[in-house]
């Protein structure tokens, strides 16, 4: 009887451990797929089809669902793919109609709706995920590419590459509060954890513009590597990571002093480079997407020309391992406890 109890306890413990397995969901742009990668052993658990040219995705607050924005290739995309992380399969394609080129995406706090940019329609689109339909659209008048959502879900900031500007949108009122020109090609951006500052990288001018998040007043300018693509604060607000596609590096910037303190480089053999949508960029593995763990101990950098993720220990700022992905990884999401099938 006692042996049976022990066996049952061990089985329950193993099941609980499996249920708590942390994982990454990674979009493979050139493969129209999403991979689930175990952080325990680095293996790919599943690969799921999505729409053409997926660039960004968002994980639901409960960790059950992922939604991929299908930006498209030569033909503009106009759909979202809903992925069930428990069954490891796509369960719905949401047609956005005339709202083409969806890109930046985030879940609202209610866990039922996502907000996504429509670059060509110049709008922010609120989508009801359970019912698979567009809830409403907010015209911004700007070709918003990437987007950052405030923690309370009341405001959003968009980077408008084509017009060299950043916009602040009030989602409650459904109106643009302000748009300011910051350079020639702002794309990656993030809002500090305290909600006070907006850091926007300009991929043409190779710099970060620091703005007041509420007024969009300019506060500072910080040089970066070549073609800065993504910007992310660590959860404690101490550091900012910036991926530089052409330089093949990630800048680490002190958020308080606004001074670069380190540069992370990645092993790369240009003879083994994979083709990407951005074309060849010399000896760069083309670091694009950045994902930082909620505890701030690890960061993952998508190396699109290498079909790998670089896992970085942020205490030492060294690469500790590489994880194999599909073709041309970019957008990523973190799942603290992957649902058990």
In short:
By secondary structure, this protein is mainly beta. It has one helix spanning 2-19, and strands at 23-28, 33-38, 44-49, 54-59, 65-72, 76-84, 89-95, 102-107, 113-118, 123-128, 133-139, 147-149, 155-160, 165-170, 175-181, 186-191, 197-202, 207-212, 218-223, 228-233, 239-244, 249-254, 259-265, 287-292, 298-303, 308-313, 318-324, 329-335. The strands form seven sheets. Strands 3-2-1-28 form a four-stranded antiparallel β-sheet, with no helix packed on it.
What does this structure look like?
The protein has 341 residues and is mostly beta strands. It is built from one helix and 28 strands. The chain is globular, with a radius of gyration of 20 Å.
List keywords for this structure.
341 residues; mainly beta; 4-stranded antiparallel beta sheet; 52% strand; globular
Strand proportion: over 45%
Individual helix count:
1
Number of beta strands: 28
Choose one word for the global shape: globular
Q: For the terminal residues, how far apart are their CA atoms?
A: 30 Å
* Largest sheet, strands/sense/barrel: 4 strands, antiparallel
- Uncertain ranges: 1-18
What is the ordering of alpha helices and beta strands?
HEEEEEEEEEEEEEEEEEEEEEEEEEEEE
Q: How much helix, percentage-wise, in residues?
A: under 10%
Radius of gyration: 20 Å
Mean pLDDT: 93
Strand arrangement across the biggest beta sheet: 3-2-1-28
**Class based on secondary structure composition and strand pairing:** mainly beta
